[in-house]
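User: Some background: our group keeps a shared notebook of sequences we're curious about, and every so often someone picks one and asks for a predicted structure to add to the entry. Today it's my turn. The entry only has the sequence so far, pasted here. Could you supply the structure so I can complete it?
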Amino acid sequence: MILCCGEALIDMIPAPVQAGGTGFVPHSGGAVFNTAVALGRLDVPTGFLTGLSTDLFGEQLRETLGHSKVDTRFCILSDRPTTLAFVRLTDGHATYTFYDENTAGRSLFPDQLPDLPDDIGALYFGGISLISEPCADFYAALAMRDAGERLIVMDPNIRPGFIRDEDRYRARLDAMIRRTGILKVSDEDLEWILPGPGPLTEKASAIAARGPKIVIVTRGREGAFASFSDGTMVNAPARRVEVVDTVGAGDTFNAGVLAALASDGLLTRAGLDEIDGPLMKSALEHGARVAAVTVSRAGANPPWAHELNWPDPD
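Assistant: Of course. Here's the predicted structure to add to the notebook entry:
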């Protein structure tokens, strides 16, 4: 099992209303939540760890997870409210306004770390849950505690507008990167982590030298590449589709990559050593295939396994 650790929230998606103007429809979401749902739909044994509210939106989140075959027994319940993210779409690209103070997802502390069963081979972290305190310290503490036993996978999905103490965030993120086996960043994330001139490939190699065996870099329509700590590098193109919106695109790309590795039994600390260039290239291609389905329809609506062609008939 892979345990996805991070935020679950409600995306308030704009929609036209009969009386005219625009209203907002509540959709289950959050970067780590989206990846968990996508993994469950791709038939990967998946659990989810977050702070989850007992309010009506928390119930909606639990129902979505259950419907997508995600194990929710690790969620920490409270009567605090659910985080809300109001979405604005401009030419298919999403920007967000968050309401997150004192929410169930944010209000996790390191002394609440759960005991985890041995069948969890990998922990996946990312999103705003690595920025917002105190939950950021909760997830960092979990990664530090379990890095010696389980594969750590991370997509920081950096949102600079959320960061209040940049030095503190950079220190926490760097400590987690050093314990991460597979790190995925966007080109924008990578430029934020290592600002200044220089090609993305060199910056990815520099990050890999800090600890990760594999650094995956996504570049939107330009596809993705993976840089190994031994210098190996592989590329995969993006899928060309008509884009409806990009909500959840990176999250489901991650799920596609992890699903491919899981199918080969490689989502463990021991399995990480078996991942080579050809396997990683195939995983990147599957990630692109999964993301292409998501961006072709509205909202973060990852595909089910039966909606994909595996392997690709091409």
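Suggested note for the entry: Confidence is low (pLDDT under 50) at residues 310-314. The first strand starts at residue 2 and ends at 5.
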